[in-house]
Fold this protein.
Amino acid sequence: MDRNTALAAAEGNDQVLDSQKVMGTQTLVRGLALLECVADGVSYVKGISSRLGTRRSTTHRMLSSLVAEGYLHHVPYRGYTLGPQLIRLGARALEQRPVVGIARPHLESLARRTADTVHLGVRDGNAVLYLEKIPGTRGLEMRSRIGQQMPFALTGLGKAMMFAIPRDRWRALYEDGLTWVSGDAHPLPWPEYEAKLDAAIARGWTYDFEENELGVRCVGAPVRDISGGVIAAISLASPVFHMAESRMAELGPMLRETADAISRELGWGS
Amino acid sequence: MDRNTALAAAEGNDQVLDSQKVMGTQTLVRGLALLECVADGVSYVKGISSRLGTRRSTTHRMLSSLVAEGYLHHVPYRGYTLGPQLIRLGARALEQRPVVGIARPHLESLARRTADTVHLGVRDGNAVLYLEKIPGTRGLEMRSRIGQQMPFALTGLGKAMMFAIPRDRWRALYEDGLTWVSGDAHPLPWPEYEAKLDAAIARGWTYDFEENELGVRCVGAPVRDISGGVIAAISLASPVFHMAESRMAELGPMLRETADAISRELGWGS
DNA sequence: ATGCGCGCTCCCAAAATGTGGGACACTCAC
DNA sequence: GTGAGTGTCCCACATTTTGGGAGCGCGCAT
């Protein structure tokens, strides 16, 4: 089955075992892989079938089904793009996360008081997934978007969620984060990173000094649920100009209070 | 296959033939139906399998695959919810629509000048699908959300897109819209509806007087692309209090100009 | 203007894939 | 406790999927 090896190779990491896993749904899994493929901008049959390792006729069959169900949008001879059903389901998926609805008013209050950009994110594998964003009102827009992923270890959000991750896994996440970096980031060297994370845990909130995006600093804090585990994090971000170290130190407690208020609504400490 | 008839009925229009269509992807189509099922809040195995018409073991197999791929989130003995991959793909699907990115600055400008809620939507079957929303700054929040659907014929957005729909299909869309209405809407009777739509076409923008949501009025205008066809629409909405008829008449031309500016960027009239 | 690559739509035999029945351990709610 | 329902196996059967092929049409590049 060269298809499986191809898929495993495409996935890149420890998914090699995955391909062996839940068997009995080849068509379904292939269809989902096809969606990812289109999500990555591969919009023509040839590219898709070569990336999936399926023949043209098989690929066409799946494409037609996905188009018929509204998961793909199709313009003949112009290619395939993600369809309206995915927009709908994506919105539903957000609604179904209790933390989003509960956090929103708290985040709005934070945004009003600080004028900075507010984020809510959860862990998704080795990434942070943004669930909510309230743009700052200083006229300088962050590039982040709901549904976007960022390296877990190199964001204020991710570092706040590190609080609940066993120390022996920090290094792996840190190393993974380095593989994401483009030009405009200067991550800390490891020993310093670890030390700063320890300090953040003692303090109760995290700092990010342009480590992920040049010119942007942020402050983050973890959100916990009824089990006491960290299930999300919030952050405040702004251009360096508005984020002097002294101001960050003032924002920290505010972040932490907001995060704790959300946590309490989720049942934390009750 | 009663599942297919149910699906076809849910789709509403000429999809009845569809169920016979693209065969050879049963597992994929079932898996997608499963996602919709979970999206509708059916989160337990029993409910899902009965709605899909599949046996427990088959349902479990699909569920496990979807969880493994991140399309579903699973808490043992607590049920299934839509997963992070759908949030990601939903966001990508939005990015892949050129109209969203092109319209955004125009919509932001409109929002700043009017302080009302701005919407961008496209047609999705018999519904309007919101692609963008900029909340008004009058403190009164609309319930609408990106990714949400509304009855096509009963919204300012939908009526603006009616401009390009052959007159002989208006009635069907109107009737379909009536099947959506909850308590808080008073749709116009048909003859009046048709007359007002004619007037709107002559004028170049649409009005909606609380027909879809009680207490909310809106003004809409169509967006065209290079082909000249209407591919989207924009609208301004606010509580009745801020939407006197006189003000709506002033907003109309502004809406139309913004819509046309977006259309031109999409290649309209070039 | 012409050609070629590729997209779209059929068909069909072979076989790989998915199905569903059954059994057992476990969890949760009543 | 008890029972309904979930999570996890296994396996023989046959339905479903596969992919090769052939034809037509579109559009890009030369």
About this structure: Residues 26-27, 54-58, 61, 76-77 of chain A lie near DNA strand D (CB under 10 Å from a C1').
